[in-house]
Amino acid sequence: MTDPAAPNAVIYARISSDKTGAGLGVARQEQDCRALADRLGWQVARVLVDNDVSAYSGAPRKAYAELLDLMKSGTFSGVLTWHTDRLHRSPRELETYIDVSEAHNVTTQTVRAGEIDLSTPSGRAVARTLGAWARYESEHKSERITRKKLELAKAGKFSGGPVPYGWHMVDGHPVIVEADAAEIRKATTSILTGRSIGSVVDDLNRRGVTTRRGQVWTSTSLRNLVNRARNAGLSIYKGEVIGQSVFPLIITEDEYWAVKSLLENPERRTNTSSRVRHLLSGIVRCGACGAAMTSSSRGRGGRRDTEASHYYKCPTPGPGHVFQNMQPLEDLVEQVVIGQLSHPDAGKHFTVGADAAESVETLQAESEALRARLDEAANSYADGAITARQLETITARVGALLKAAGDRLAALQRSSLAALHSGTPETVREWWDAADIEQRRAVIDSMFTIYVDPVGISAARRFDPERVRFEPKGQD
């Protein structure tokens, strides 16, 4: 029979990593602890489990917090665990555990280390010694893992985990999955040509394209995908590119740096929604104050689908600012843009948007030279020719130049849309009709700053094209 006077005990089990999710590690700990309870004659009343939670990482452990609460309540007089390192690997946590054990007369028994009598100086000394060694082992293991990850990153090798979207493993070597790679290229090109993250996400989900885990795409998952250095065959460690990867590239390095620069630009529209409904929202500006105009509508007899019900307006309150019906303004802007793109010299005027002397080729050459400097610096450090501090300085300076080149390349990719689609009026019109609203907006925004002047007090309330001013961007 069970001794009614036997101590009530709580079993606490924890495992740091459970890759399969089967909980086998904690199940074995519980089994051993129950066998120990039988030998001691203790009654097991509760089992608390923290599965796949590291004590060293500092991650919250709900079951451990519950254990401390139960110890403080006086409901239990014993704790059973497989080893002291299952309870804590932090001296700070250990001291708290000692204080609670002393205050509430709780005894701790372990399968591997025996009884830990925290009510005596010698018992506390043993617990602290075991805790110190457990901390040392955790830190040493973390250091080994960090070193190994750095070694793998420098060699461009795969450090483990799920195989990234775009590749699969064949005999331990990454091989491109062409269908996935095509989606990566399409998404990268779409963003570089002015599409929003949200519109690309909607396109993927509408076509039934899923993530590596079979889930729908979100703005975050797509941003992470296109902003991934491995797409360009680059190896990265702690956010820094440190060499070439064994993963075959899907996009070029220049495309990677350009899209990275574009996504990290603080001026980029942060709204991830794909619902851009109106061609000139945020592009056309009030001629009185320069503010970007917004779109709106008003009902007429309960209807909002007439031309006159949709308009652009200046958000600045007060008289003297612009209110303009949409359709005639959009028609005018469309005519001007298509006319400009159809001009024989359109390619001369709208090639880069910043410095007309620059080209894709020159920026690619500059980027390649900067990357070669980084490689040379890394080799010099490996040969002992420069110190770690010197390598850090070189990497920071050259990295800044490389980012600047990426910024200019991103601007070029966006602004050169006009040149890419220049041609006869027929071909330009064909492209324009086929383009979606995001692409049209990108072209307009790369070509002009558009102002609409307010209507004079005595002027007729009809659309006057003379009130619309087009200020070209990026002309030589």
CATH architecture field of the largest domain: 3-Layer(aba) Sandwich
Structure class: alpha/beta
CATH homologous group name of the largest domain: Resolvase, N-terminal catalytic domain
Biggest pleated sheet = 5 strands, mixed
Shape from CA axes? elongated
Q: How many domains comprise the coordinates?
A: 4
Helix content: 40-55%
Q: What's the count of strands?
A: 15
Mean pLDDT: 75
Through-space gap between termini: 97 Å
Adjacency order of strands in the biggest sheet: 2-1-3-4-5
If you consult CATH, what is the topology of the largest domain?
A: Rossmann fold
- Assembly level: single chain
The radius of gyration computed from the alpha-carbon positions, rounded to a whole number of angstroms, is 33 Å
- Ranges where pLDDT stays below 50 over 5 or more residues in a row are 18-23, 269-274, 348-358, 418-422
Q: What's the CATH class of the largest domain, please?
A: Alpha Beta
Strand content: 5-15%
What does this structure look like?
This protein is 47% helix and 14% strand. It has helices spanning 24-40, 62-73, 84-87, 91-104, 121-154, 178-192, 197-206, 219-226, 253-264, 326-342, 346-349, 360-382, 388-415, 417-420, 425-434, 437-447, and strands spanning 8-15, 43-51, 78-81, 107-110, 114-116, 167-170, 173-176, 234-237, 240-244, 284-286, 294-297, 310-313, 323-325, 448-452, 468-472. The strands form 5 sheets. It has a 5-stranded mixed beta sheet with strand order 2-1-3-4-5, sandwiched between helices. Strands 10-14-15 form a 3-stranded mixed beta sheet. Strand 4 (107-110) and strand 5 (114-116) form a beta hairpin. Helix 4 runs antiparallel to helix 5 (121-154). The longest helix is centred in the first third of the chain and has 34 residues, at 121-154. The relative contact order is 0.07.
